Amino acid sequence: MCSVNPGHCTLIKYIFLLLIIIHLGLNTAESVWPLPQIFIPSPERYQLKPQSFSFGYRRYLDTKHSCSVLDAAFKRYFSILFPGYSYANLITFSVATQLLFLNSYKLSVFAGQASLNAETVWGSLRGLETFSQLVYQDDLGSYYINKTEIEDYPQFNYRGILLDTSRHYLPVQAILKTLDAMAYSKFNVFHWHLVDDPSFPYQSHKFPDLSNKGAFHPVTHVYTQSDVRRVISYARMRGIRVLPEFDSPGHTKSWGKGQSELLTPCYRGATPSGTFGPVNPTLPSTYQFMLSLLKEVASVFPDPYIHLGGDEVDFSCWRSNPYIRAFMHKMGFGLDFSKLEAFYIEKIVNITSILRKTSIVWQDVFDYHERRKFLSVVEVWKQGCYLCEVRRVVKAGLRVILASPWYLDQPGPTHNWARYYNVWPLAFKGTEKQKSLVIGGEVCMWGEYVDATNLSPRLWPRASAAAERLWSNERQTSCVERAFPRLQEFRCKLLRRGIQAEPLYVGHCKHEYQSV
Amino acid sequence: MFSLLGFAFVLLALGSCRGLQDNDVDQEEPELVFQSSKYGSLWPLPQKVQISDVSLKLSSSSFSITDAKESGAGPSCGLLQLAYRRYYEYIFGGAKKQKVNRSARAGPTDLLELQVWITSPDSECDGYPSVSSDESYELTVDQPFAVLKAPKVWGALHGLETFSQLIVEDEYGTKTINSTVISDFPRFAHRGVLLDTSRHFLPIKVILTNLEIMAMNKFNVFHWHIVDDPSFPYLSRTFPNLSQKGAYHPYTHVYTPADVKMVIEFARLRGIRVVSEFDTPGHTQSWGKGQTDLLTPCYSGSKPSGTFGPVNPILNSTYDFMTQFFKEISEVFPDAYVHLGGDEVSFACWQSNPDIQKFMEQQGFGQDYRKLESFYIQKLLDIVAATNKGYIIWQEVFDNGVKLKPNTVVHVWIGSGTNSEMSKVTAAGYTTILSAPWYLDYISVGQDWLKYYNVEPLNFNGTEEQKKLVIGGEACLWGEYVDATNLTPRLWPRASAVAERLWSAKEVTDTGDAYSRLSLHRCRLVERGIPAEPLSPSFCLHEYKGV
């Protein structure tokens, strides 16, 4: 996160929000989603006037520069607060610094002023989001905010959403819209499952044939370098990391179209059958190619992590191929193809660390491999007793991202958001140190049945249920019935902001979704 | 040949995918692989199709849709003129119509005109479609003119849709159509989609868009479940308090008379009937807010509990209200039928009320509350019959032994596709509509359109006479979890599966062929700006842009 943090932004310790009080009145406080750690609302309220409201910096060590991330955020949140008004003036102030945790913030609305303190720009983005959720309109259209004290920080540092752009191509616009909505729920990682069997939409400048031949369409269904840069910068402005996944050695059918000899030729009897299996782990050219590709990926994506996949490798093709079998024999792997897979993954992980990136892998890699020391972060995705798996991984001293309970591509007949809310990632036997290895969780939206036509309503607001689990204090958010009205209200806020979030149950929002 | 043309759609067989692992989903489901159908992207499949190899070119500058000289409907038929314009835009993607210039670059393989010929003297251009409307048409695409013949405008509308579906585009944007002969008519007369505007309010725009999509699927009935327990968005001129107090919001969440008119006319222009449903005596909580004494006060012991139950069937005022109300409805909605609901009546509140108990005693109903329900329904049916409307009721009314008039239409919704209910209702001689297998608000993982597609509506024990009583079916999208945000992708293309079942011949059951055509059909919907969700990992040449 910090690596994408431009120097001058880290200097900001204070943000100041200026409100003009018109009058005081009594009203119930509005709700915030996800629930802040410490939230002290009060019935005392202040009116906000769009004409005189503004955001400003309080302390600014180098006043000659402004922080572009926050300037943009001020603009964005101004129009979220007051739809239809434009943001013009910006007043700066200076005040002493205060140290807080990374990503944490303190928000105080009191006596007609609001102040937001944060150690980093990322913490202040979260605080701005919270602030925007505190403002409400009465029936006559006047804006209000209640006296409030908030101290907030996330329960988990990794709060991700996976989008799959291989099974269906998602236009860049759909990705950007998702990033907007992610920021509203305080998600901070966009796990971009860029490529897979069906298509290879990433346009590589070193290997243009990968998308020329492997994308659904070489021109209209690709992400160009500038598309990728746009996504990364859009995400950064919202405090979201972009974690690229280049899944191998399985899930690579589309790679083979543009890169000959990368995939293993499958055999029927003594002759090649014409079909291909996983990446061929026996050829030196494979590793040269992977080094070259990952080198490009490492420079295009600034995040210090790369997701290497490693899931669901089908051994039947490897088994059919006499060269692979000979290689197995030479290496002394016997008939244990998981050893061959381990051999491959270990090499790829090493390439990744040479590129100074930390690798993340799906749990399969952990499960099949005896030597686990070379791994760093394991993503647990399989159903069943997923906490058993989490426990095994942290016992091995590795970090965990939990995805199993949050497979949102499976709608299920019950439409039940509570299924994603009633998840307790730390409910396993383990030491504090082991539990601290669970760095967070991830909502997965696989693309078999999802594209731009239905992505948003399928994702929201169900993903928001997971967002609260990952951000808020478990003890304060253990009751579905109490969360429900707050989530309903949050869903209406999403609609108001143009996010196509589906309804939780019978009811209405003051401003319904107006498009189709 | 078709693989070279059109929508450049690629399908990748479903490999193993995380989404499906470790889940007890449709393991027995056959793997569907995209292989172009000899019927291209036609959906629903016409009754008789002959497509030749002769390919004709269409260009936006030279092609036009016109009235045939002999046609029974001329330029004065607004319905057709609007349809010509609509389909021209579908075909050429809203490209500006240039001046027709036939002599200039019209080659020998160009198709210049689609002539629409209404063959009967009364085109019904200014009328409303009905359950007995003639929807048949014949389409001949040949050099230099294509001719669409239909007895009535309703068939012509379907024929225009079919014509537009025959056109394919290559990667350079050139549009071609193969020389084709089609003769077509629907298998069932009642092909409906139910939308529920009470559990969630649906903005008018959403309703209109879905009428548009219905027409693209040859649906012809919009069953408007307009009010229910949660809200009463219908703005009644006679009883404005019903929506004033019963809607989610009295101004932003109501359908004004002008809105309703607009929906009805928009539907008519697409050959779609609007059948309104005013469900009583249950499902009426929202009615009570704006109409005092209409609902039964429930009792807790000897005192009213403050809650209300179904419509109060023992008061004369109830029937006075219903008389006035349904008089208005019969005037506002031109369709010959009104849906009167009658489902899921809970007897608990009636049982708790001492006045109701007394009435039961007086009438000699004993403890059989079904008799009370029957008493109410029969009075209601008389009221509605007096407005010269026919009526449709949900199956419980029949199940509960209410005496129905012989022309009543019974709507079957309980149970699965092949149920004995269909035998019972038809054996009793009632006209029947089937919805039981087509509750599209229930969702599951994977290709559930197959489930809807594989239904055979006449698959029940009964005589030929009985089967003739089944006039069609409806796909129901109840609104508990559906509003403007997710309605369209949830409904389409899943409802399209129902559309083909209700339109095409009984023998059209090849799921592989259907899969290929439906995949292309869904891409066509997407290209027309409709967020119809995908069937499987795949792509459309023109993806959905309306994010």
Biggest interface, chains and residues, is: A-B, 58 and 58 residues
Q: According to CATH, what is the class of the largest domain in chain A?
A: Alpha Beta
Number of β-strand runs of chain B: 19
What separation lies between the terminal Cα atoms of chain A?
36 Å
Q: Roughly how many Å is the radius of gyration of chain A?
A: 25 Å
Q: Compute the number of helices of chain A.
A: 18
Q: Tell me, what's the shape of chain B?
A: elongated
Assign a percent range to the helix content of chain B: 25-40%
Please tell me what the overall shape of chain A is.
Answer: elongated
The CATH topology label of the largest domain in chain A is TIM Barrel
Low-confidence stretches of chain A: 1-12, 89-101
CATH superfamily of the largest domain in chain B: Glycosidases
Mean pLDDT of chain A: 89
What structural class do helix, strand and pairing data of chain A support? Answer: alpha/beta
* Strand-residue proportion of chain A: 15-25%
Question: Mind explaining what this structure looks like?
Answer:
Chain B: Residues 1-19 form the signal peptide. Chain B: It is found in: Cytoplasmic vesicle, Secretory vesicle, Cortical granule; Lysosome. Chain B: It comes from Xiphophorus maculatus. The complex is a heterodimer of chains A (516) and B (547). Chain A has 18 helices and 18 strands. Chain A is α/β, with parallel strands linked by helices and 516 residues long. Chain A has two domains: 28-152, Chitobiase, domain 2 (2-Layer Sandwich), CATH 3.30.379.10; 158-514, Glycosidases (TIM Barrel). In chain A, a hairpin with a 2-residue loop joins strand 12 (263-268) and strand 13. In chain A, helix 2 runs parallel beside helix 3 (121-134). The longest helix of chain A is centred in the C-terminal third of the chain and has 18 residues, at 337-354. With 547 residues, chain B is of the alpha/beta class. Chain B has two domains: 48-184, Chitobiase/beta-hexosaminidase domain 2-like (Chitobiase, domain 2, 2-Layer Sandwich); 190-513, TIM Barrel. Chain B has an eight-stranded parallel sheet with strand order 11-10-9-18-17-16-15-14. In chain B, strand 15 (390-394), helix 12 (395-399) and strand 16 form a beta-alpha-beta unit. The model of chain B is unreliable at 1-28 (pLDDT under 50). The interface between A and B is large, with 58 and 58 residues.
